[in-house]
Amino acid sequence: AEGVVCGHDLFVASAMEPPDNILKVKTHRRGKDILIDHNYLEIASPTTSTKFGHYYDISKTMSPELLQSIKWHSFYLPEELSLEPKLKMCNMNCGYANLLHSIQRVIYQEGFDGSHPQKKQKNILRIGIQSLGSLLWGDDICSSDTPEDIHSLTKFLYVLRGLLRKSLSACIITVPSHLIQNKAIMERVTNLSDMVVGLESFIGSERETNPLYKDYHGLLHVHQIPRLNSLICDVSDTKDLAFRLKRKQFTIEVREAVLFHYFEPKRWNTWENRPTPTSLELEDFLVFHFHSSLIFFFLITLAVGARQLLETREEHLSSRLLILTQAERLCMGRRFFTAFHIFNELPCKGYGLSLFSAKASTQRGICSH
Amino acid sequence: MTEVSSTRSVKARCGSFLVGTERGVQREGFQVAGRSSTAGSMSAAASPQGKFTLLRDTGTDGSFLVHHFLSFYLRAGCKVCFVALLQSFSHYNIVAQKLGVSLTAARERGQLVFLEGLKSCLDLLFGEEEPSGEPSPLQFISGSTSNLKALFDFVRTSLTPADSASWKGPVLLVDDLSVLLSLGAAPVAVLDFIHYCRVVVCSQLQGNIVVLVHGSEDAEDEENDLVGNSLGHHSDLILWVEGLATGFCKDVHGEIKIIKRLSLESTEQDLVQVYQYKIQERNVTFFARGLSAAVL
Prior knowledge:
heterodimer, A: alpha/beta, nine-stranded mixed beta sheet, 9 helices, 9 strands, 15% strand, globular, B: alpha/beta, Rossmann fold, ten-stranded mixed beta sheet, cytoplasm (chain B), tRNA processing (chain B), nucleus (chain B)
């Protein structure tokens, strides 16, 4: 949603369902249509692009006009495999090889890697890959302790990292880590990613009835923060994060009761009316809802080198954190969705990516990094 | 060996760490505070050659050591071959500029040979055939060979001195050997590669090697542990960086254990020192355990 609002190009890849369903639209089904998920909406009045992040209302769908204003590309594995079933790349899984070729083609053709200098308008490509590593991608790391090819996923991530580093793109990947038995793979995957975030839901676990957690639906674990272009990284002081889903909003909050009084998102009609930070310097939240007792790792690889290509500081296109555009459908029985208050906290000088969109003012939040 | 001189030799081996008075002395971007030793810093040229340094990090990011060694050796005038597998050139360049060294200038004057793993991998997979006919250093990714010979050949040709070269001892720096394991190299192949590099760089050319092996706290990756432990047995100096056992702290980012092998033949105990550190924007401060500036 954030990509649509900011006018960036999208690339949505899925093996589970047609990317059309991820961004559902009533009219077009194929081709370059944008699909928005029916749970996934946008509020009527997005604020100006200089501020980071927008609010989204999960109970409505995105207007088709907004969707048509951007260009998006889709990758639906069953279709792609039927076209090129034999594509091989360095002993990698066929599905991954196809996906890499597809991403590389889009990056090259649309000029995100600077290969078409005559293009006047530079844009960012936001890539979303759903459920990487699951059985649907043809990888058996989720289904067996001793997978046949344990290097496919890590090779894929390495090549993807290379593609992102040399182009103006950012990628968010969801991985069903609860299904992966081999911990060594998860360690390698974490090492190859820039930012790793995990969501843990209380549903189905003993924490659901724990009075400590009664206001929340799950915990948010930040496993790794990127340390790019700098010796230090921007580590938040607050590590105890939880999320909850309300009817229209999904929020991530610092898990302390006293802080709630300062933040009641529904009172924020516009960005200007938001409560000012207290002396504790509380930050904004990102709200997630997570309804299954599974831990998902979101691996996000960022394109840092691309930053030098952009001239406008306001764009901050080098790396953006896309927080999960959709949760793990495959694990969720019911229709579940989330709206994301997506962060566009971008490192200007590469101090790393902050999960929290800190003080909204561009001076502090974005440029200070 | 008296205590003072053994400390001195440790500092000499460490080379890069500066030991000063309680106030600490700032130099080369790193400083050690709170130490009362009298030993001074040693430049890279005066420090012993032919040494193998292993950097290990578990549970935290030890790449600040790589940045440090890179800028240290470049400033000392050594010829450096940097195999950077995890990050792009611009990342290292920007950090090195904060530490006072320009990688672009070093590369242009031939002092630095930089292998950007990410770019090389992309060229291998998506690029056209090499016009010069040389195999890509990361050829093992494509599966055609299972050993790292191409990478070793790259290292050898870049560090073997040419006629007009006037640099001091060659140095091989590898950022993250664990990435090679992720890319499909067998642990034995990685160890063979390091062995060949040691023969050429340490023994024949009297240069130094610095290698980073990244691990995690849970130590579930057996192959990674195998490589790390095996290299540890062969190293002259091990710098082991770990996060604090008690969790995250704003003022102390982690602990570093310096293990110095006094002699590979004799049965003397290794010298072990533990410091804690805090990373700042252009600097890393080391201090004795419990003596963080925030506490004092």
